[in-house]
Amino acid sequence: MVEVIDGKQVAASVIETVKSANAALEAAKGVRTGLAVIIVGDDPASHTYVSSKSRMAKECGFKSVQHTLPVETSQEELAALVAALNADPSIHGILVQLPLPRHLDSEAIIQSILPEKDVDGLSVVNAGKLATGDLKTGLVSCTPAGAMVFVRRTHGDDLSGLNATVIGRSNLFGKPMAQLLLNANATVTIAHSRTKDLAGICRNADILVAAVGRPEMVKADWVKPGATVIDVGINRIAAPERGEGKTRLVGDVAFAEVSPVAAVITPVPGGVGPMTIAMLMANTVIAAHRSAGLTPPVFQ
Ligand code: GUN
């Protein structure tokens, strides 16, 4: 029988740890963890994500600040806001929701965030620390950090001898996910849209992580029997069976046909999704501990 990981439940336990760490920090140092989230423009999906992040930060007891900027915001205005938040000692984490409107240079903005406040783990300093195996002083991108919690719960800390395949090579997910798996001693393959025999490569994986953004692309015959399958895709597709104009969310994995083949699988929704927000809160409370000179909690 396949084990379907309950991401909401795992995320809730991470959030409990965040809440108690935040309360302990406040008691010890009088410091309240502060998170600033910036959103530019009116993309409805981005607004939904950002509201959930701000709401969860409040629920964790953080100072939660949301900056909602109009689509015509200039590069200089956005850079000035990031600079002000960099200089604000009550803010420990800064997140600029991506994608930014096309006229803005995202990379310049992301790289202007102080690495110690870069709770998305996207700065070259944090990406470099992860690439060199320094998981103690850097911050790791939230979604791969969350996916890795599932991997550790299934396989433990040491993935020696296991083959892991990540489909997708983005800076936000694929690359850091591969680094985390490698750091845990897995033998890692990064596959992507230009990979030859993608199905064959996936079939070799004991741990298969899909982050391609193609609805239900990973089929049953792509999966090694007994594999752990982590689905990072969130795709909205038409669902005429629910009525005219209705939609539903599916992952990058064909859940119904893959479930009988896999040993462990994450659902969409309710798998990796809730972990992204939970790990953002974890990164922020970690950053606040470091800035107060305290050892941060560990999120397993
Ligand atoms: N857009 C979609 N996912 C993310 C994320 O994890 N961080 C940021 N900053 N933007 C996103």
From TrEMBL:
Which pathway does the protein contribute to? One-carbon metabolism; tetrahydrofolate interconversion
Can you name one GO molecular function term for this protein? Answer: methenyltetrahydrofolate cyclohydrolase activity
Under catalytic activity, the entry for this protein gives:
(6R)-5,10-methenyltetrahydrofolate + H2O = (6R)-10-formyltetrahydrofolate + H(+); (6R)-5,10-methylene-5,6,7,8-tetrahydrofolate + NADP(+) = (6R)-5,10-methenyltetrahydrofolate + NADPH
Keywords for this protein: Amino-acid biosynthesis, Histidine biosynthesis, Hydrolase, Methionine biosynthesis, Multifunctional enzyme, NADP, One-carbon metabolism, Oxidoreductase, Purine biosynthesis
Q: Which PROSITE patterns match?
A: THF_DHG_CYH_2 (PS00767)
* NCBIfam families named among the record's database cross-references: PRK14186.1, PRK14188.1
Task performed by this protein:
Catalyzes the oxidation of 5,10-methylenetetrahydrofolate to 5,10-methenyltetrahydrofolate and then the hydrolysis of 5,10-methenyltetrahydrofolate to 10-formyltetrahydrofolate.
What name does the UniProt record give this protein? Answer: Bifunctional protein FolD
Organism of derivation: Rhizobium viscosum
Instruction: Report which gene this protein is encoded by.
Output: folD
